User: Fold these one by one.
Assistant:
Number 1:
Amino acid sequence: MRLARRFRPLVSNKTTRANSKKQSKRLAANYALLAALAATDSKSKK
């Protein structure tokens, strides 16, 4: 993460903060989906 930030052209703090918020939201949604899928998977296997 730090390396990527270092090599990326300089962006204002506001935009980077907004982007990280968006990314974390997306990650949370993805993890929730994965967890739900895993739960249904384990149920069907039993």
Number 2:
Amino acid sequence: MVPIYRPSLSRRFMTERGNDRRYHRSADSALKAEGVLWVPLGTGWTADAEAVARALKGVA
């Protein structure tokens, strides 16, 4: 199991597919990776649809 790292400037998005977690600096690379998209919420991550939509809207 890959550890879950805290959000940072280089880890602005996280995708999860099975037990494989990948961290992304840009929304484009995160969306291309497929899987569940997670965005920062405080010091952790959330996959809540509204929070993801807000994060993607803020990037666009």
Number 3:
Amino acid sequence: MENRCVKLQLELKKEGALDEGKIDRRVDELRQKLMKEDFKRERGILKPHETHELAAMKVQENKKLCSSIKVNASYVEGKAFDKELQAESCLKAIKERQRIESKQEQRAAKMQEEREDRAKLCQEELANQGKDS
């Protein structure tokens, strides 16, 4: 449905005969028409008393919409206003950052230790070469 609206909008802009307001009105008219057709088609399949089926169809429609606009599957409506959830999320992020920093520090310490070992080996080899000469 939205693809057809976007195509119409692009075609009208390309023609250049209409201003933005008229283009938007035409696109909105097409969108409303398509939504009515879609609604009639969906309602024609199920009867009004089949509420569970209608609810299931609505859930599927919402999933389809969310996937088309790339909404994260873990998204919860209104979670930005939940202070406890935000605090918990912040703590998780802090712990994750600390874990990453700890790993980086461990790697840096290991690399430093390896450098020191290599330097020690080089000094021993030089000392052994000095004795052999």
